[in-house]
Specification:
The structure holds 2 protein chains of 2 kinds.
Chain A (H helix, E strand, L loop, with lengths): L1 H28 L4 H10 L3 H12 L4 H11 L3 H8 L7 H8 L4 H7 L8 H25 L11 H19 L1 H17 L7 H6 L10
Helix pairs in contact in A: 1-2, 1-3, 1-8, 1-9, 2-8, 3-4, 7-8, 9-10
Chain B lengths: L1 H22 L7 H6 L3 H15 E2 L2 E2 L3 H14 L4 H18 L1
Helix pairs in contact in B: 4-5
């Protein structure tokens, strides 16, 4: 079980590393300095929101609009933070530090089939995958144009597939979790064309309210 | 100006991350909330799955990724190891892209 999870962490880290390379290259060509690209990956620590920022900048959007489109992509961190909250350290300063490592991947890997969250595993995954992101960005920003398109390797499909793999044991056992996952997916597809990019997963998190009634 | 974006977005993202863990005390979670919290991850991750597979920006699209999704679901249904699910989905997507 643990060995299988470690392989998933390695797979996420590998895919994240390649996207990090891409972010470094595209970030610099969008007008960021090498230092800015690396700082952004270290401090913002969220691939999809960072790609949204450089896409907006490359398209000639104002810096303000670029920042807003990046912020929207990270809105889902709010429900993910709520989900892991009970599993983090009892000491508030430590919780505040651990919270920095909340990402899609770290929460997915740390989610147990019984619905609880493994706090230390969230931290480990966040550190490993986050390091791959920052190192990838650094090499891409400094090394430049030697990488191929990660889409050619289907790496964009690796993340959703990983989430399916990690959710599957729970969804097999827990019919309510399956129902809520399907409702969340349906909400996302229903609203995605009508709300700003990034809002749909936040709205989909409301599907969890189905569980209010025991 | 770029630095302002970086620091502003970093601060906002960290606030989103830390809000839940600072608002929720592990020892005093109201009952209704304790029932909802374990279902937030499946709801959000399922949304990220369909968003990752079927959307480009705000438009719904069916492309090579859909084949990757079918491969991932089939592999998960057959209870293959997680790494196999990931590799099969990426490979299926890559092959369809290469062919089209």
């Amino acid at each position: 079980m643990f060995r299988s999870l470690d392989r998933v962490i390695a797979a996420f880290a590998a895919a994240v590393f390649v996207f990090g390379l891409t972010f470094g290259v595209l970030g610099v060509s969008a007008g960021l300095s090498e230092m800015q690209a690396i700082a952004m990956s270290t401090l913002v620590f969220g691939g999809s929101s960072q790609f949204a920022v450089i896409a907006a900048l490359s398209a000639g959007a104002s810096p303000w609009l670029a920042a807003v489109s990046g912020g929207l992509l990270n809105l889902r961190l709010l429900p993910l933070g709520l989900a892991v909250a009970p599993a983090l350290s009892a000491r508030r300063p430590i919780r505040a530090l651990e919270s920095f490592l909340i990402t899609d991947e770290s929460v997915a890997v740390a989610s147990r089939p019984d619905g609880s969250v493994d706090g230390p595993r969230m931290v480990t995954t966040g550190l490993v995958v986050g390091t791959a992101w920052i190192v990838g960005t650094t090499i891409g920003a400094i090394g430049g144009d030697f990488i191929k398109d990660p889409l050619a390797f289907g790496l964009d499909a690796a993340f959703p597939a990983g989430f399916i793999a990690l959710l599957a044991p729970r969804l097999r056992e827990d019919k309510r979790a399956l129902t809520i996952a399907l409702i969340g997916a349906a909400i996302c597809l229903a609203v995605v064309s009508f709300v700003p990019v990034g809002m749909a997963p936040l709205i989909a998190s409301l599907a969890a309210l189905v569980a209010i009634r025991s | 100006m770029i630095w302002a974006i970086i620091f502003g977005l970093a601060a906002f993202s960290y606030l989103l991350r830390v809000a839940g863990p600072l608002l929720i005390q592990p020892d005093s979670v109201p009952t209704w909330l304790a029932r909802v919290l374990p279902y937030l991850a499946p709801a959000v991750l399922a949304a990220l799955v369909v968003a990752g597979m079927f959307t480009t920006g705000r438009s719904l699209t069916v492309d090579a990724r859909a084949v990757g999704l079918v491969a991932a679901l089939a592999a998960a249904f057959m209870k293959l190891p997680a790494l196999a699910i990931i590799v099969l989905a990426a490979a299926a997507t890559a092959v369809v892209r290469l062919a089209s």
